[in-house]
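Quick one from the shared queue. A colleague (R.T.) flagged Purine nucleoside phosphorylase as missing a structural entry in our internal table.

Convert sequence to structure tokens.
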Amino acid sequence: MEYHKKILHSAAYIHEKLGKIQADTVAMVTGTGLGGLTAAIEDPVIIPYGDIDEFPVSTVKSHAGRLVYGTIDGVPVLALEGRFHLYEGFSAREATHNIRVLGELGVKTLILTNAVGALNPSFETGCPMVIEDHINLTGHTPLRGANVDSWGDRFPDMCAVYDPALRQLAVDKALELGVRLERGVFMQIMGPNMETPAETRMYRAMGADAIGMSTCMEAIAAHHMSIRILGLSCLTNKNLPDCMQEASLEDVIAQAEKSSATMVKLIRAILKEIPQPAE
């Protein structure tokens, strides 16, 4: 089936199950170990990915693979509990199928969360980081191929992918809550292998503060559709090339789950004051 039609089929199924999505709905993608963020959603309606027409299915441990719709403190939220990675074998377009569907549903604001390794030696493990910019080192882009003009321009500008107002709101709320919030540049690599010490030095020299295996594809697709983006990373480990420590998936998940309470507190505070997008 043609790509655009697959997206429309998925969106139509969700519309049928949930009805019309409210205009002020905030979407959220939860990263590795951060699925607990959806526990804050009140009166949830849950749809497994496998039930949605043409929708991919998550294969990674700790990614539940379900859509959760409800409210958090009165704010309508549409959470995608689990995402799709290039290393799973998905193409960049398949990895952003969920984001395209959000756009077709009318979502205008998106919070992307992920679990990442810190490259900046001054960053603290367990702290959240607001993504100020990104480096896509995968060699892939979801914009490859024919453009869908109704989604966005063929050559979108990328000077402000992560919404400045939302970033500032995150900083302000973290300050009010007494939460240490790092600010930095996120880099996506292909994975699934972790970084070598030599690669870590190179990535840091290139200007990255944190590194992971997701998010950039989603941010590109969302920005292409004029969706406002706030990126929040959970720093699960620190990559120090001169004394590298093994970082197993189990350790990453454990640290992300441990830090999820802080992420939930910060996101709830942000949602309470999140401004509506301009028409």
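Helices lie at 3-18, 92-95, 97-104, 164-177, 197-205, 216-224, 249-273.
Residues 58 and 83 are 6 Å apart (CA to CA).
Added to the table.
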